[in-house]
């Protein structure tokens, strides 16, 4: 939940950076950074709670905001993010004691191109390659700020959350499996590529981002006065309790294990706020799909008991899930056979 909140606050910080002429941005600038820019500000310890919230979001925003090179007059070579790589967006180091400060000083303005000799002289080889990949506009254009983790350059909460999650998972020691995408983005790819219906993927996304209407979340929004689980009454109902720890959910897990090799309860541990994504990272494709089906139906049982007539039984739910899963496997098998047949026809024709 903390990471998702940080992504939401980063959106507020982005609005202030992207729209510096707005009334709110001008008021904050006058009070907190009259002689500088928000992205470079060192914040006072006695700032207001609202500003501290924006500061928390700005910490994340700074990791993904990048300068798009125009004339280079606003971009500081050694300090700013301006190198479009997958992780660190800054120059890694300098080869000589260079005193140049601005990116514009690296250009040959008469031909709208980099001064290649100068770039190779002051940067290490890996940075030289990255700098020379950046295309300088053919016409004089001002530098502009963009969000690196979206092709459009526009900030999105979803991509910011993925960035925060990537950093969190790296801190937790989850290894990267790709040179271009590591940590959190890889886990999200695992989730979205799981062979389950879209509605179950959407549920999983809400579960991963603490977006379910649990008693805990409803209490935080002043919609409930008590966060205790209404089904079992044995503890506070957060997302983990709702789909794992509640007696109704455990009963569904046990019923499914009669036919499925569902992961053991020992693996369903509350390992922190990102327990669900850390769990998915440990599973193969089939196990991931079964877990998503199981949690999705656990949430359905909970909602039927709390908001519906309470007629859905554990046995009927388990039977429904297993039949649903079997139907999907048959459809996928048929699709694979059809694709294989088409390939054979094409091969024969050739």
TrEMBL record:
Stretches assigned to the Reverse transcriptase zinc-binding domain: 155-251
Superkingdom assignment: Eukaryota
Protein name: Reverse transcriptase zinc-binding domain-containing protein
């Amino acid at each position: 939940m903390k990471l998702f909140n940080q992504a939401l606050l980063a959106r507020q910080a982005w609005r202030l950076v992207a729209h510096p002429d707005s009334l709110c941005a001008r008021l904050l600038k006058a009070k907190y950074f009259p002689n500088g820019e928000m992205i470079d500000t060192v914040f006072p310890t006695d700032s207001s709670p609202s500003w501290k919230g924006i500061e928390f979001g700005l910490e994340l925003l700074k990791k993904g905001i990048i300068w798009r090179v125009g004339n280079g007059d606003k971009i500081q070579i050694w300090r700013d993010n301006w190198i479009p790589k997958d992780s660190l967006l800054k120059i890694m180091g300098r080869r000589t004691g260079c005193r140049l400060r601005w990116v514009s000083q690296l250009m040959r303005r008469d031909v709208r191109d980099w001064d290649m000799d100068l770039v190779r002289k002051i940067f290490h080889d890996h940075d030289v390659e990255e700098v020379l990949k950046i295309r300088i506009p053919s016409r004089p254009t001002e530098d502009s700020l963009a969000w690196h983790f979206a092709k459009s350059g526009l900030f999105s909460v979803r991509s910011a959350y993925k960035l925060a999650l990537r950093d969190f998972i790296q801190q937790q020691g989850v290894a990267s499996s790709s040179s271009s995408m590591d940590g959190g983005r890889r886990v999200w790819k695992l989730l979205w590529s799981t062979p389950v219906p879209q509605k179950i993927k959407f549920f999983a996304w809400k579960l991963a981002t603490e977006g379910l209407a649990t008693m805990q979340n409803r209490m935080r929004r002043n919609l409930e006065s008590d966060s205790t689980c209404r089904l079992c009454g044995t503890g506070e109902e957060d997302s983990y309790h709702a789909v794992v720890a509640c007696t109704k959910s455990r009963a569904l897990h046990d019923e499914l294990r009669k036919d499925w090799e569902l992961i053991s309860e020992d693996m369903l541990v509350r390992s922190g706020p990102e327990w669900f994504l850390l769990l998915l990272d440990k599973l193969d494709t089939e196990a991931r799909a079964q877990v998503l089906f199981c949690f999705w139906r656990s949430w359905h049982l909970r909602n039927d008991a709390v908001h519906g007539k309470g007629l859905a039984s554990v046995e009927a739910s388990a039977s429904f899930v297993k039949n649903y899963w079997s139907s999907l496997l048959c459809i996928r098998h048929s699709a694979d056979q059809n694709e294989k047949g088409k390939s054979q026809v094409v091969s024969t024709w050739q």
